[in-house]
Amino acid sequence: MKIINFPEKIIWFQSLFIYPIYLSGSIFIFNSLQLWILVGYALFWQVKLSLEPTNKIDSIDIRPWRSIPPLIWGWLISMILMGVTILVGVYENGYNSNEMMRSTISWMGDWSLLGIYPVLGYLLPIRPVVIYRSACVIAAQSLIAIPICYGAYLLKLPALIYLSLLERIIQNGKVYYLISWYTREVDSDGIRLVLFTPWGPALGLIGCIFFFYALEEKTLVWKWLGIVGSLAMMIASVSRGAYLFLPATVAIVWVIKNLSFIQFQLSLGISCFLGGLGSTLLLDSFQEFFGGVKSARKSSSQLRGELERVAFDRWTDSPIFGHGKQIPGPDFLKNMPIGSHHTWIGLLFTQGLTGFCLFFTPVVWSLIELSLKTKSNPVAHVALKALILVTFASFSDNIEKLAYIYWSTFLLIGAAYREVSPPGSWDLGNRPSLPDLPSQST
After folding, report:
1. Which residues touch 39 (CB under 8 Å, ≥6 apart)?
2. Does residue 155 share a domain with residue 284?
3. How many domains does the chain fold into?
4. What predicted TM-score, i.e. pTM, was given to this entire model?
């Protein structure tokens, strides 16, 4: 597959060297810088195209900022307002200017990615096939890394390799700069892998996302390397959520695609009627199933429940703009930060009802629009599956903290709107639009 422009080269470089970048302790910094490099590139072309006649500029397919769709604007404006809400919360809770600066830097590495990547996906000529192949490349490398990590455990090497000194510069949490072979289970003597992610559930989430990307790969070898590698990432993560999210997403998207067919509607109606007859049995079965899932890691489930309860109770102390940031929990919460382990309750605690609405609105809007596009737009179909996975994960994790890992989901949301060129777009030179051409093995 030929990489044909600068934005694609940036993404391709990241996929080729993701493990060396991780081992250097700079994956959070690199992935965050990747965003701002692409922002600079997009701004350069927007200015250049505004100032110079199109026939004097080399062929490139750039969308004008004036044609950005409402949904994409919604994400950008919501995440900018999220940054403002964070600063208001920090100020109202009496934190000093240093804390406001830290909060701004933190916003640039998490929430801002969710607002800017959809814009870049729409404006820049980044083909979805590059995203899919990059995921397969990372998954293939993971097939090599996973047995090495398990080998380190068998050789009884220490779980932690080292802590990057870069953490002292950014100071956004040691977990993003820990280089580990593996991590140990709290409830057992088992282990779980994190690979290039900060914790196990994050690896499970990106493994699920990469699985759907791999299904879109055209080259058979890369396709199967991506499928097997992504499944191996999920299994190695030992993430209960990942095991549930993948089949649930497949089922939901299948229902959405077939909802318009009369045969499916009739079948659904009959199923609902029969389900109603056996509702008690079904409810008991579901409760028993989810009870078994929770008991598989009982102390973890109990800790999450306590964190959610405390965060929700404390939210009422500052309901509009929240407490500004997560705060260390007491001993009975094992010093876990209040506002962590749940995006929505965490938002209520840290950014109040304002922050909750600023995230809830574009998420629901995107799920509706992508669902409407999924039958006619292949990129929207993939973006919908990835966004559903992220939404599932939001109920057990602070997904804004993982935006530097699953950024491609939001890039694809923007790319889904490039399938049909809007009126007045800049399509320069004689180069045709960039189709998803069949890839060649490399």
Report:
1. 116, 120
2. no
3. 2
4. 0.87
